[in-house]
Amino acid sequence: MTLTFEPLDDRPGLAVIDQIERQRYRIHTPTPIALRETAADVFQYPVGDAVRIRTRAIELPTVVMVYVRDDDGAIAAEVAQFESETLPADDYVLDPLTQIKTYMRVEDAEVEVTVDSDRTRIEFDAPTDLLIGARSQHDRPAATVTTTEQPADVMAAIETFGSALKAHDPERSYPTLRGHPPALEIGDTLDIPADIDSPDTGVTLELPPDLASIFVAAPLSYYLGASLVPASEPRLTTDTGFTYSLDTARGFESEVGRTLKRLFFLDCVTRTEGFHQIDLHERAAIEPYVNLDFQSLYQQPLAEQVATYLQVPYDVIEDHIPKWRLTTHIDPVPANAEQLPYVVDDLAIVRTHQQQRLNQASVPAEAEAEFTRDDVITRAASSDTATAPPDTDYVEPQAHDSLEQAWIGDSIPIGASKLTKAAFEHRLDRDTNAEDITIRVVQNDARMDEERQLVDEVYGTRDDLPFDVTVHDDLTTAELGTVLTTDAEFFHYIGHTEHDGFVCSDGKLDVTTVDSVGIDTFLLNACNSYNQGLALVEKGAIAGIVTLNEVLNDGAVRIGETVARLLNCGFPLRAALTIARGESILGGQYIVVGDGGVTVTQPEGGTPNMLKITPHGTEFEVLMNMYPTDVDELGAITMPLVNDYSCHHLASGEIGPLVLDRTELEDFLLMQKVPVQIGDKLYWSKSLDLAEAVS
Predict the structure, then answer these.
(1) Where are the domains of the chain?
(2) Are 94 and 106 in contact (CB under 8 A)?
(3) Pair 498, 509: CB distance under 8 Å
(4) What DSSP element (H or E) covers 205?
């Protein structure tokens, strides 16, 4: 049902209707009601906009915890899965833990909240006026800062990143309270728009005035809203006189990363004394070992919190810090500063270690041409299409303790995503409407029908999402050009590419000759597809999966099917490829180009996750591996949907183990479609024969 609402105020732009539709609320017998108040007058929590409707009930086709608060913000009830609460007539604010932060306010109404096995229902005793407020993520730069290439100016520009924070207390560890930093561009003079208001948090980072140090410190500076000043030795200081050295035996880059993780994690624990006073697993795990009064800490200024946090030994909390989503390795040259706002928005760890560059002859074995699709294809007569151009440089960033790795620089990365400024800019232009999800599959070689049949069985199988899937066979260059320039959320190519074009029935189509493309994301499951994939991003796409050299057909089929299933489950491209690489010996041949954090579909429920199951007699040990998205970013929380389980976890990395009996596990597997690892094999939860898999 498409609804029309009267906004609370006349500010254009917030698509609260779209956000509600994206959450797929079902609102029973709604009647829009005009309202004169402003959003600030009716909600005590930050919201971007709000609407008022008259309704009897709201139903969500997902399971979420619902908090019910009184007018003072105190919790009157909390309703988890398989629970129901009825509250007497009064004024309430309902706070469901949905992906888009949503608040619902009712006045003088009896409220019943029920959360069952697969949905959440909020019902009133009679048709009731309901105010719905939404706070979306501030997911695009609000301004552009121009800086010269001089380190002092770059430092001044990065100091503006903290202006995007919506809170300066521990609540900013929630994703929706961390806005997107201003964009950066290199110019002739430093120009900071007057409407950028950098905070004064009482925290300063003293840094050597070189680009490497400044780039590495950018995420920490942003999260703290810190001032930046040049100094010979790197350190963090506060206006209370506290000093913390960032130049330790571990090295500056490692120390900065550890400092960011420690401060962020302890904010996540301390915020349990704030708006959402939940039972957090991580707090219970560390509280006996740290001498912290979290209730008192929550009330302190940010500078005092930082000083207190940094006196907690890192090794006491290290095992409980959530797995970081992204480490970005960056070549510290001025032009790459323009991509910093986008990786800082991900709260990525930034590294600038100089990597060993490789030429084609020294590319590691997993990227060598021996992994060929020759058993299926007849290669072009020209042998030079099998290798990269002779002047191609490769770089192999050192893997760090994050779920995903990325690279910013001119070289081609091995084992990491290739980020580009164009990809981030295209993401900002992406149309996130509620229309059908358009998927185009092109099979340009009939001998590769196995992959096409497999992905046919995958795309569009989500009953809760509208898909428009079209398959094209044996296209000419003109026909393929039409497909690429037509709007679509995802393009899956099965066939052949060479460095200078897609192989079609009448020749080759080189994307560099196309003015622009309409596809958002793609998988080019073909040999040597890197150059054409990078060209797709430069011409308008956001991100895609490509190959560095030649690929063996059987492995390519497994990669293609696995990626398709993971994207259909709501995994971001970069996370999907990270998992899919394990399905083939040639997994290292595939990388993401562009903004790999983008998703093609929404996950069925919260943060995408993969289960790892280990049988122990009549019981099963279950580990949940959570993969944050651009919606459920670092700081989001989750709760396993298991009977009698009431503890929340930070939704990144490994959760568990949960110990379940067979019946409990079988029920758990049916709740949503997720990948499941048992031994060294990958299964899918809703089609898994548990007895056969563990036999």
Answers:
(1) 3-135, 151-346, 420-602, 609-694
(2) yes
(3) no
(4) strand 203-207
All residues at 6 or more sequence positions from 112 whose CB lies less than 8 Å from its CB, including other chains:
84, 85, 86, 87, 122, 123, 124, 125
Pairing of strands 402-408, 417-418: parallel
Residues 6+ apart with CB under 8 A from 551: 371, 372, 373, 525, 526, 527, 559, 586, 589
- How many secondary structure helices (H) and strands (E) does the chain include? 18, 37
How many whole angstroms from its chain centre is CA 631? 6
Q: Does domain 420-602 have CATH number 3.40.50.150?
A: no
Please, are residues 6 and 52 in contact by the beta-carbon 8 Å criterion?
A: yes
624 bridge partner residues: 611, 655
Q: Omega before 657 cis (within 30°)? A: yes
Measured between alpha carbons, how far is 641 from 320 in angstroms, rounded to an integer? 21
Predicted confidence (pLDDT) per residue in 624-656, tens digit: 999 999 888 999 998 888 877 878 999 999 999
Residue reference for tokens 């992204």: 326
Say how many C-beta atoms besides its own lie within 10 A of residue 62's C-beta: 21
* Beta-bridge mates of residue 412: 394
Q: Mind listing the pLDDT tens digit for each residue in 595-615?
A: 999 998 887 767 899 999 999
> Which tops the pLDDT comparison, 360 or 5?
360
User: What is the amino acid identity at position 525?
Assistant: N
Q: Look up the pTM and report it.
A: 0.85
Dist. CA 640–CA 360, nearest whole Å? 46
Which among 560, 543, 533, 681 is positioned nearest to 613, based on CA atoms?
681
In 239-354, where do the E strands start and end? 243-245, 324-330, 349-351
Cα dihedral: 500, 505, 511, 517 (round 10): -160
